[in-house]
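Sanity check

After download, print the first record. It should look like this:
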Amino acid sequence: MMYTKGILLLLSIPLIVVVNLSAGENKWIEGRYWYFVDNIKVEEGNSPEILLWSALPMNHKGQTAKIGKIYPEPAEIIHDSVNGNEIVFWRETELENKERTFFYYDFKVLPEKVETNIDPQKIIPYQKESEEYKRYTISEPWIEITPEIKEKATEIVGSETNPYFQAKKLFNWVVQNMSYEYPDVKERGAENSFKKLKGDCGEFSVVFAALCRAVGIPARTVTCIWFKGGGHQWAEVLLPPYGWIPVDPSVAEMMTPGSKAIDTEEAVKKFMESRGIPKKDPDYLFGNLYPNRVIVCIGNNIEAISNKTIIKKTFRFMQPGGSTAYPPAIELKELSDKTVHAGFYIFGEERDDVEFAIEEAQKELASSYFSVELYDKAEKGFLKIVGKKPEDAISWLNLGQIYMNKEDYDNAIEAFKKCVTGRAGSIKPVIEVWAHNLLGNCYDIKGMRDLAIIEYKKVIEMGVNYQGAIDFAKKYLTEPFRESNE
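Expected structure tokens:
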């Protein structure tokens, strides 16, 4: 998100479009992943190209997947032999006279619940010389085994030697000691999140995985897309002979008293129902998995090596690619820096309707238009979103910033107020602190200093310093914000 002429705060939430979808166990779900690139401008003499990577839904415990048509013809389907991912790699060079282009793949998934019944006494020793054991017990970026993590893991498991009971103790510790807070991408990773004991679903998972690895239990992350509501990540631990067992510490934490992940009991209930979680029991999330999701990626630090083009990229995570990967799984070469792009899913009957997809792309690209200061296009996209979802806090926040850039401060104030009262799920605190900050800015510009001070104080009281929100509030608590500060 951006506020007032050039200060950029990145917060990208992937759009999931659900159309005529009756999700559930033992039902095939058909979908299409779309990726749009818009506002293409090619300067004479340039040789532009788009490189795009996206992980494909795979066969995995709890999911059978079939991949259909892929458009345009990809340069290669890359096999990640380490984690088992399949990655479609496009290399598009035919871009002259195109203002917009798109990519897609079709798929079918059969999602199923995973319910394990483990007898801890039947667990057999690890084959510590195997490549699988070595791969998933190492320290690596985002799953760092620091001396502090190793010390804490050893303390938690104590004298316990059975990997099942060790993993359960580590799971309980994470659920009881970590709290939900959406992190800046630069602050991600087990090392950082263990120090703060805060994070989102991905951070709960990497901290748990690092603790497991620290005591010799193979662990990794799994990334999915909800049928409703964006992306998610959980962990898996290897317990032979039972294989890889799902463990979801962040959803388990959501079910504990005082959780900040979801603000009301009713919202928790709706979340569980939409995901197919049968009961509000944190222990259920140790070993069992709900069905209403599409698994798209296994592991972190995924190497995508194209044998045909000799192009190599390493991604800390893919969800499933493009702009929802880190680093971004898209490269725009010799194209304008105002080229925008985004990916999204459409499930159901309208998944292959191009006109419908273009309409949805205008909404999903709104944030991208905004980031390159194409405010009129961005405004149209966000207005379409709030027209259908009037409580969408993210869109109201962005609309408020657009109005600020247009110096329409009255409409900006109304938009930020709607943001504060709107909904954004588990990331609402991140959204809300910046809405209060920007409300304060607007009040300062209008000479309403008393109201501005109230807003900055709210940010400090909330205690969420996402991308320096508290530091920003403290600055303008002591000196009024002016347009000249931009």
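If your output differs, re-run the checksum step. Summary of this record's structure: The radius of gyration is 23 Å.
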